[in-house]
Protein 1
Amino acid sequence: MKRRLRLEIQGTVQGVGFRPFVYQLATALNLFGWVNNSTAGVTIEVEGGRSPLNLFLEKLQAELPPNAKIDALKYQYLELIGYNNFEIHASQTGEKIAIVLPDLATCSECIAEIFDPQNRRYQYPFTNCTHCGPRYSIIETLPYDRSLTSMADFSMCADCQREYEDPGDRRFHAQPNACPICGPKLEFLSHCQGQENTNQSPLEAAIQYIRDGKIVALKGLGGFQLLVDARNNKAVQQLRGRKQRPDKPFAVMYPDLPSIKNDCFLSQLEEAFLTSQASPTVLLQKKKEFNLAENVAPHNPNLGVMLPYTPLHHLLLKSLNFPVIATSGNRSDEPICIDETEALERLKNIADGFLIHNRRILRPVDDSVVRVMNNTPIILRRSRGYAPEPLTLKRTLSKNVLAMGAHLKNTVAIAQKNRLFLSQHIGDLSNQLTLQAMTKTLQKLSQIYDFQPDIIACDLHPDYLSTQYAKNLAQKLNISLISVQHHHAHIYACMAEHQLESPLLGVAWDGTGYGEDGTIWGGEFFWVTKQSCERIAHFKPFPLPGGDRASREPRRSALGLLSQLYDLQVLKKLNLPTIQAFSATELELLLSMLKKDINTPFTSSVGRLFDGVASLLDLRQRESFEGQAAMALEFSIDGLQIPDFYQFQYTKNDSILEIDSRGIFQGIIQDLQNDLPKNFIAAKFHNTLVEIIFDIYLHTLKLGFNSRKNIVLAGGCFQNKYLLEQTIQKLESSGANIYYPQKFPPNDGAIALGQVMVVTGQAI
Ligand code: ZN
Ligand code: ZN
Ligand code: FE
C-alpha cells in the first residue's frame, strides 16, 4: 500500500546542497512529492510503498552531503495526495530557526575549473558551487535564497541559470552561482585611482604590485586584507610603519602545503585544519631555516599560516608562487573594512593599490585563528569558517537572552530556544568604529533570526562600552539587565562548550576583569555548584601604579610587585632592569602614587604577574600589543625542561586562600642576582603556576568536595602553550578530568557565551 511521508528537518540543511540531494534520492527511488526550504529548515513530502519510503528515510540520514548536519528530524505518515513527479518548491516564510552556514573555502572541483583553460570559469575569481563559497558574509536574512543575499545584484546568464535549475548539477540551487558573463567583476585601482597599465587585467596589475614590493588592499571574502611580499623585509617594514603595527606578528598566506613545510613544522592535525573548509590561520612553529623576512613575526618562534580559501586567492598565489602577508585591512585597532568606498578612504595611507570587486560584503568576517595545544585544536579567534555556527543548549530557554561580551576581542551572543549563536570576532571596543561594528553585527544577527531579547547580559565592569550599550538598550526596551562577573563568564563558557555539570573547580586566569569586590581580578579559583560560583582562592592583590596604563607597560606591574617587597627608598636604588627602564622623574612620580595610593588599583591578575616577570627579565618593558610581554616570557623558555619551581605561601588561610606572590618574586630576584639564565627563570616561574593550580586542586580534594575530580582552565593565560600543557600533565597524573576551551576562545572572545550561561542558570 502506498503512503505519503512528510518530514520536517532542522539543522545545517540550507546552502549545502541538501535539496538536490533529496531530489536525487527521491527520483532514484521513484518517489514523487516535493522538497522546500523553510525558515525552520527543510520540509519534504514523498509518496510511495513501504520499503522505498523506509529506504528513503534511511539513506536521507546516512548519505548526507559533506557540510550538512541534521539536528532534528520529525516525520509522519499521511493520506495519499497522488503526486506525479518530484519538485523543488519555492521557499516559505515562518519562524526563523534554520541555520546560516559559515563561509566555506573553495572546493577542489571549483579549483580544478578555474585552472582549466577549457572551462568557461577559467580564471574566474568568484567561482563557487553548492559545496563551497560565500554564505554568512553575503546573507541578508533567512531563508537562504539568492534574492536575500548580495548576489541579488546579479542576474544569472542562461548557462548559470541552467546549472542552477538542473538537479543533477553541482550548482543546482547554489545561491551565489556566477560566471565571467553574469557574475561579479574585479577592478584594480592604483593609489592615484586610475589604471596605470591598461593592457593589464586587474589581477595582473595586483600581482605586479605585490612583486614590486607594494602593498595591495584586497577585497576578500569577509572584508579587506592587506597583501605584501612576505620575503621582502623592506616592504614588510613599510606595512608596519603605515599600519602603526611595530611588532605584532602578521599572518602569512602560502601558495600550497609544500611551501609551508619549507618554513614551518606541520603536524597531521595542523594540516587537517589548514586544509579544512573553514580554512583558518593556524599558528605553526617556524623552522630554523625560515625563509621569510624576519620582521613578519619578529622575536616569535611561531607563524600564523593560511592557505588560499577563495578562487581569487588561489589565482593570486598561483601566479605569485611565494608567500604573502595577509593581514586584516584596517588601521590599528579599527574594525576590518568591508566596503570599497570606506576602504579607499581608511586605507589610503596604507595601500598602494586596491584589488576590488562589486559583490557586496554584508558583514565583516575576519580570518579565524587556531593553535594546536595538548594535541587538540584550540580556536583563538572564532570568525570566518566557524561563525555563526550555533551551540545547541542542553535545555530549551523560555526567554531570549542577548549577551554583550566584554571589552577586548569582543563578540556578542543571542540565545533562543535551545540554540546559542555567538557572533564572529568584532574586536576591541576601544573606539567608535568598533562600537558601530558591534552594533551592526548585533542588528544583523538579530535580523537573521528575528530575535528580540527578553533579558540582556553584560560584564560587571561599569565602564565598558559594551556595558553602557547594554544599559541603554535594556532601558529602551524596558527589559531586565543582568551584570555577570567576568571570570564567572570564562568558566561558564567552557562548561557550556563541554556540556559540563557542576560541581567543579574553575580556574580563570587572564589580564583584567572587574571583580565582585570592585578590585581587578585575573587570578581566580572558583568552586562551582548549581547554586553558586564561589571564589575559593586568588592571588594576593598587588598595586598597579597608573591603573590601565600598567596593562601596556609591564615595568609598572613589576614596580607594583616590587613595592610589596621593598621599602620605596630602597626600591629606587635596586640594580634591576625594571628600575632602569624608568627615568628618574617617572620613577619618583610612580613611587609617590604608590605611597599615596593615587590611581593605583589593586589586582589579583596572573596576566600582570607575567608582565612583572617579563619586566624583571628585561624581555619587555612596554607593549605595542596586548599579551606581548607574556608571549615573550613563554617564548623565552625555548624548550627548556626543568622540574624547579619557586616556593609559594598562602597569606590568608581561612575560607579563601590567598596566594602570596612575594616569595615567588623574591626567588626570581635571587636567581637574577645569581646570574641564572632567563630561560631557567621563565620556566621556573611557569612551573610555579602549575604547582599552584595543582595545590589548590588537591585542596578541593582534601576538603572532600571535588569527588568527581573535574577542573576547568579558562581565560587568556591558557593561550600559553607551556602553561596549558604542563598544567594538564601535572593534573592528569592525579587522575583529574581537565577541560579547557577549544571550539570557543579561551580569551574574552567567549565572554558573551559565558554570560548567556550564567544568566540562564540564574534567571530562567
Ligand atoms: Zn565548489
Ligand atoms: Zn553566468
Ligand atoms: Fe578575560
Protein 2
Amino acid sequence: MLYYCAVRVILVRDYDQVSVRAAQFVADEIKKNPSLVLGLPTGSTPVGMYKELVKLFQSGTISFKKASAFQLDEYVGLAPDHPQSYQFFLKDHFLDNVDFPASNAHFLDGMSQDIPKTCDIYETSIRKSGGLGLVILGIGRDGHIAFNEPGSSLSSRTRLKTLDHTTIRDNARFFDQPEDVPKFAVTMGVGTIMDSKMVLLLASGRNKAQVVSDVVEGPMTAMVTGSILQMHPKVTVIIDGEAATRLRRLDYYTKVEEMWDEKLSV
Ligand code: GLP
C-alpha cells in the first residue's frame, strides 16, 4: 500500500485553503455515503469550512438530507439560544443554512439538571444512529479535542468536564467579560471520538504549530489528548503552512501526498 502514514497530513497554503480542502473532504464522504453520521466542531477554525459547505449545498453539489450530526461539546449553563452556545453556533454557521433535517441533528443539553443521564442518552443516540462516521475536529492550544482537556482519560465517553485555565483564557475572546466564560462543559469523550470510522482534524496559524507537532509526531499522552489520534486507523489532518512549521517530517508528508496524487492520476 502506498499510503502508510499513521496520520495523513495534507499541507495547504493558508486558512482559506484549509477551509476549501476540508469542505471538499466532507463533500466527498457525503457523496460516497449520504447517510453519513458527522461529529461537528465549533471554534474559529471550522467557520470557513462551514461557509464552503453551505456554498456546495447552494450550488447543488451536495445534500445533507440523509445525514446525521452530533455536536462534539457544549458549555454547561448556556441555553441553546445563547449566542455563545455551541448549539447556536452550529445552527447559525451550518445546520440552518443547508437541508439538514432538524430531527437528525443531536445536541448536548448544557442546561440539564442531570448531566450524567444526558451524557448516557447521547452515547446511546450515537450508537442507535449506527455510530459516528466522520468526526471533524479543531485543536485547542493545549492539545484538547472537543473539550477533552489535558489529563482526560484516553478511553473517556461523553461526560462533564472542568475546563482548563488555558481554554477559558482562549475562549474569553467570545464573551463580553472574562468571568462570563463557562467553567464546565459536556463533551464527547476521547473514546467516543476514537470510535468514529474517520477523523478529520483542522488547524491553521502559527499559534497552532506546536500543538500540531505534538499531536502528529509527539509522544502519545493524555496530556495532549489529540495525540491519541495516532492510534486511529483513518485520520486526516489538514493544515496550513504556518501551522506546519514545527513538523519534523513535513517533507515526507508532502512527498507521500504527491506520490498519491500521481498514482490516482494514472
Ligand atoms: C474550543 C472547542 C474545541 C476547539 C477549540 C479550538 O475549546 N471546544 O472543539 O477545537 O476551541 O478553537 P479554535 O479553532 O478557535 O482555535
Protein 3
Amino acid sequence: MRKKIIAGNWKMNMTFEEGQKLTSEIVNMYKDENIQDVTVVLNPPFPHIHPVKKLIGETSGVAVGAQNCSDKESGAYTGEVSAKILSSFGVEYVIIGHSERREYFKEDNELLAVKVKQALANGLSPIFCCGESLEIREAGTHEPNVKFQLTDSLFDLTAEEISKVVIAYEPIWAIGTGKTATADQAQEMHAALRRHLGNKYGKEVANNIPILYGGSMNAGNAAELLSKPDVDGGLIGGASLKSRDFLEIIKSY
Ligand code: PGA
C-alpha cells in the first residue's frame, strides 16, 4: 500500500503568530477527526520549523517538511540551510525542485539531483516536484518533458534510494492560477510517470512511490482528483494557509 500524503506548502507566507495559530488548528482538527490513514506534512518557511515541530509534538501522522535545502553539505555558504541541519531539527521531508525554485532561482535538473542526494544522505524524504509549462502542454509534449525531469534528476538513484522519494506532479499553468488539471489529466500523467519509474526500477518499486498532484487543489476539487488510482495525495499551496480548507482536503481523501 502506497502512503497517502497531503502536504501543505506555505511558501513565503505566515508570520510567527499566524504560523502558530494555523499549526495548532490543523493539529487539533487532525486529532479531533481521528484521521489515521493520511500523512500530513506541513512545509513552512525555515524559521517556523522548530516551533511548528514543537506544536505537532507526538501527534503521529503529522510531520514537518522544509521547502528547500542546500546542495552543499556544510560550511561557508552564508544564507544556506543544509539537509543535515534540517534533519537535526526533526524535519522528515523536503520539497525539491518546485517550479518557483526552478524559475526564480534558476535551479536546473543537475543541481536538483545533488539536492536530492543531500536530502537522502541525511534521512530526509525529498518531495520532488516536476511539471510542464502551458506552452509545453499546448504543444502536446508534456509527457516526455516531465518524464525527462525525473530521468535527469532521479535516475542515478538506487532502487532503495528512490523508494524514499515522493513525486509531486505540478503543472506550472495550474499553480496559484485557480486553474486545475482535470482529474483525468492528472491521472494520465501520474500513470505515465509511474510506468516511467517502473521501466527503470521495476513495477514493485514504482507501485510504492507516492505521486502527489499539485496546482490549485482545494476543498472543492480535491475529492475528484484524489479519487484517481495513481493520485496518492496533494501538494497544496494557497488552500493550505487556511486550516478549515486544508482539513477539508484531508477529509475528502
Ligand atoms: P497552489 O500551489 O495550490 O497555490 O496552486 C501549489 C504549489 O505550488 O505547490
Protein 4
Amino acid sequence: MAKKVILDCDPGSDDAIAIMLAMKDPSIDLLAITTVNGNRIVPKTTENALRVVQFMKSKVPVYRGCENPIFCNEIPGRKPGLPRVTLNDCHGDFLPLPEARITAEKEHAVFFLVKKFMESDGDISLASVGPLTNIAMALRIEPRIAGKIKEMVIMGGGHTGANASAAAEFNFYADPEAAKIVMDSPIPKVILPLDATWRACITEEQNQELHDLGTPEAIFASTMVQKRIDNLKVNDVSEHNFQLRHTPGTVASALLYRYDNDRAPIHDALAIAYLIDPTVITELADANVDIDTYGGPCDGRMVADFHNTKKFWDPITAKVALNADAEKFVEMLFRNLGKK
Ligand code: BDR
Ligand code: CA
C-alpha cells in the first residue's frame, strides 16, 4: 500500500521537484502540501506550490502556513530580515510555470496539520523540506501530534557543511527556534543534512538526459536543475567549493571530498526519495541532535552528537543521514519524471 505523506515546503526549485516526485511515484500517496516562509515569503511559496499542483493536473490540496519564523529577530545580535539568504539564489521569485488559477485551502496549514494528525491512525509520514516553523507551531498547539506522526523526514542542517552562513544550513538557519522545538520533540525523525544531499548530485550530462526524456515534468525539472547548476558555477564560493571531510563507514574521518562544477544537489527531492526507497541513503547514524539558537556565528547550526557524549542524560533524538546513492537517486528521478 502507498505511504501516506504530507509535504511541508517552501517552493523553491528543489521543493518543486520534490512535489513532482511525490506525485509521480506510486509508492507515495501525497495527502496535502503545506507551505511556509523560507526560500521566499509565504504568498510566493504558496503560489509556487499551487503552480506545481496545477501543472501536474493534481487535486492535492495546498494549505498556506506561517508568515514568519517563530522568534525571528528577537535574539540580540541575530541578523535582521528573513529570508536571510540571498547569496546563492537558485530559486527566483516565481517558478516558470503558468500563474495558478487554483487557490489554497481556507484553513491555516498549522491547524490542518494538528487536525489531520490527531484524527489519523498514526499512519501518516511527514516530509519537511523548508524551515520548520509550521511543525513547531503545530507541536506547541498540540504536543500529542508527536505520537501521531509515523515518521518525519527532514531536509535540513549540516554536520560538516553549511550553506546559509559559515555554520548553518538554510532551513535551520531560517528558523532556529522551530528547528530546536522539532529536534526536542519525540517525533521519530530522519534528518537529511547537506552531508547526504551533496552526495546525491545530478550532473549536467544526466540533466540533459532528463530533459531528453521529453515529458513536461522532466523538461521542467531539468530547467530547474540547470538553473541550480549555472548558479553554482557563478557563485564559486558556494557549496560546490566546499570540502567535505568524510569517509563512508565513519563519521569523523578525513577523506577530502570535493564537488565538481558540473553538478547540483536537489536537496528536497532526496527526502521524498528516502520515503520511496530508504536504501537511497547509504549511511544513517543515531545521534542526539541540537540546534544553536544563540544568535551568534553558529546561529541555526545543527549539532549532531554521534558519539552520544551525554548519553546518560540525553536521549538519541534522530537518525542522521551522512551519505547517499547518487545513481539510485537520479534513476528514481528519471523513472518517475520520465513516466508518460
Ligand atoms: C534547503 O534550502 C532551500 O533553499 C532548499 O529549498 C532546501 O530546502 C537546502 O539547504
Ligand atoms: Ca526547501
